[in-house]
């Protein structure tokens, strides 16, 4: 590290460890950090103190590998002349946390903000992986704005079962159908599902984890190529080392999140998300990061910037392959390289390595053209989200890249009106009611029904449940009807291939139009016009609203924990990133 860089940065850790103006506090800060063997030389000779924000633990199997990787990161930090302070982040395990892991995204965010602000850290390595760990960490880095770099943990190896790839999450949806149809017994069901998790790492499909890690890279927050390396590969340990080295340089260069996470970088993220077939959770998390760094970004931008981008990455659930092929084919740099050829990347956006995304990714052509396609061989045109609105909600998104031929053939068939369908609404208030009622044949759900899930948004079901992609009743599955249209104010798993209309905002619990819907109403969805409406008169709608207000609004279950209640009182809607509203005004807090 050259002295010129050192001249630029003033280390904030000096306020703790080397402040002759306040010997009392300095001694107090210093003495306890000496007690496990650090020396005064390390703490007082002007070395950057680098945090490793550790998201791995026994409770977080998707990220647990970071405990091992941190050793390599540590070696990199030391090699570059830094001092390491590793600390735990509140665990967020997508598959283990009840009632839903997304409840904890904002809690982990808050905790990490306090740690980054309140302790003597000059820079931080954010260890990411499982779905919400990535946005939680980057949101906190955005708020505090100290030099920060993302280290993904990497996906698991590919799952295999009887010679076929089994992808995380995606196989669960399939296995559930087979179980419901009686084609698998309980033991076979578990065995099939477990085959998709053969090693350490996060989900190997293009679910929310691979999406968010790919997008962190596209945003410029990780080293090029970082997102896709499978967790057990040697390159994973190697990039952990490089990441550790790089964060020390970033501190000297004073390269901060606000230098990297610009409007241009967010537009790159939206484009890349379409090309990778990214999760419908991406707009929620990315919009949250944008709000915390203070960049203008809204849900409509996802359609405007991203809809016309083709699907290039052939990964489940939209495609065929899994994480190992994605990495071998070139990962994010290969995707960006192809997008650059077509003028879709804002090439000047800066990244953590100090170079632009254009310089990082130019001529990084895919090495397997079936896994990462060219525009000429794209899996689908217009693969981005569309944003719908109407009297049901102000906004909801739909991932058109997962609309199956079966779905198209059943619902989008009218030649005069090829993008619209009408159906009879069947409304569920929360996932528990859905599970209780769905298979009851006497309710009359058939192939002309449209399933609605409400009470599943950030307030109604604290954190917003991944429950909008509802499976059809078993009796319909047996007749080969596997996907009914689903609409709701919750989210859906990024590993699901369901063409749901989701993230409806405002949610029923916040007075959205979904609260006025009744089972039996006719609804009309026009994908071409981007509209979704209950087919009733404005007068009838107004009457229903008056009745709802008189009854005290939409009813949802009581909170089970203190945090549920606290978050419900201050959380914004999914379209706005589901952020804690009072948190947004705190920006660049390390400078205060
Ligand atoms: Fe953790 Fe998918 S459940 S990454
Ligand atoms: Mg998920």
UniProtKB/TrEMBL annotation:
InterPro entries: Dihydro-acid_dehy_C, DiOHA_6PGluconate_deHydtase_CS, ILV_EDD_C, ILV_EDD_N, IlvD/EDD_N, Sugar_Degrad_Dehydratases. The keyword Ribosomal protein does not apply. Residues 47-360 form the Dihydroxy-acid/6-phosphogluconate dehydratase N-terminal domain. Keywords: Iron, Iron-sulfur, Lyase, Metal-binding. Transmembrane segments: none annotated. It holds the Pfam family ILVD_EDD_N. Residues 370-577 form the Dihydroxy-acid/6-phosphogluconate dehydratase C-terminal domain. One of its GO terms (molecular function) is metal ion binding. The keyword Lyase applies. PANTHER family: HYPOTHETICAL DIHYDROXY-ACID DEHYDRATASE (EUROFUNG)-RELATED, HYPOTHETICAL DIHYDROXYACID DEHYDRATASE (EUROFUNG)-RELATED. Belongs to the IlvD/Edd family. This is Dihydroxy-acid dehydratase.
């Amino acid at each position: 590290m050259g002295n010129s860089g050192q001249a630029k940065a003033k280390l904030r850790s000096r306020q703790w460890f080397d402040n002759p103006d306040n010997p009392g506090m300095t001694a107090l800060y210093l003495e306890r950090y000496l007690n496990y063997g650090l020396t005064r030389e390390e703490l007082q000779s002007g070395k950057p103190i680098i945090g490793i924000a550790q998201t791995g633990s026994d409770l977080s199997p998707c990220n647990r590998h970071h405990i091992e990787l941190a050793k390599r990161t540590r070696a990199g930090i030391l090699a570059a002349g830094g001092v390491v302070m590793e600390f735990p982040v509140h665990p967020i395990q997508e598959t283990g946390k009840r009632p839903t892991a997304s409840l904890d995204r904002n809690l982990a965010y808050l905790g990490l903000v306090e740690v980054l602000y309140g302790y003597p850290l000059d820079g931080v390595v954010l260890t990411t992986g499982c779905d919400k760990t990535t946005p939680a960490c980057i949101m906190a880095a955005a708020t505090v704005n100290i030099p920060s770099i993302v280290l993904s943990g990497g996906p698991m190896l590919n799952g295999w079962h009887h010679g076929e790839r089994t992808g995380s999450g995606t196989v669960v949806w399939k296995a559930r159908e087979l179980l419901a149809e009686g084609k698998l017994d309980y033991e076979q069901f578990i065995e099939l599902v477990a085959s998709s998790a053969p090693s350490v790492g996060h989900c190997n499909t293009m679910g929310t984890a691979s999406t968010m890690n790919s997008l962190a890279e596209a945003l410029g927050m990780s080293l090029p190529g970082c997102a896709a390396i499978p967790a057990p590969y040697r390159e994973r340990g190697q990039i952990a080392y490089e990441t550790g080295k790089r964060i020390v340089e970033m501190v000297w260069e004073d390269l901060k999140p606000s230098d990297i996470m610009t409007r241009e970088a967010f537009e790159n993220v939206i484009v890349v998300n379409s090309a990778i077939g990214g999760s419908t959770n991406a707009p929620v998390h990315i919009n949250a990061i944008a709000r915390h760094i203070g960049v203008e970004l809204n849900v409509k931008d996802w359609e405007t910037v991203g809809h016309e981008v083709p699907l290039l990455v052939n990964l489940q659930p939209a495609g065929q392959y899994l994480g190992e092929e994605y990495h071998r084919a070139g990962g994010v740099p290969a995707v960006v390289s192809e997008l650059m050829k077509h003028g879709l990347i804002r090439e000047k956006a800066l990244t953590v390595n100090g170079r632009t995304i254009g310089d990082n990714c130019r001529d990084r052509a895919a090495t397997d053209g079936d896994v990462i396609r060219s525009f000429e061989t794209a899996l689908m045109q217009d693969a981005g989200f569309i944003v719908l609105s109407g009297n049901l909600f102000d906004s909801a998104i739909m991932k058109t890249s997962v609309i199956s031929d079966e779905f198209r053939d059943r619902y989008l068939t009218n030649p005069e009106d090829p993008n619209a369908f009408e159906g009879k609404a069947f409304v569920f208030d929360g996932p528990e009611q859905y599970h209780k009622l769905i298979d009851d044949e006497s309710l009359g759900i058939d192939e002309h029904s449209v399933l609605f899930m409400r009470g599943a948004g950030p307030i109604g079901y604290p954190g917003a449940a991944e429950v909008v992609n509802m499976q059809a009743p078993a009796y319909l599955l047996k007749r080969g009807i596997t996907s009914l249209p689903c609409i709701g104010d919750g989210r859906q798993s990024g590993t699901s291939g369901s063409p749901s209309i989701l993230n409806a905002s405002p949610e029923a619990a916040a007075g959205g139009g979904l609260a006025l819907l009744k089972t039996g109403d006719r609804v009309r969805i026009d994908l071409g016009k981007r509209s979704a409406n209950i087919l009733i008169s404005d007068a009838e709608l107004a009457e229903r609203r008056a009745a709802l207000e008189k009854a005290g609004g939409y009813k949802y279950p009581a909170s089970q924990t203190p945090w549920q209640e606290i978050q419900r009182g201050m959380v914004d809607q999914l379209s706005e990133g589901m952020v804690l509203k009072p948190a947004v005004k705190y920006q660049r807090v390390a400078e205060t």
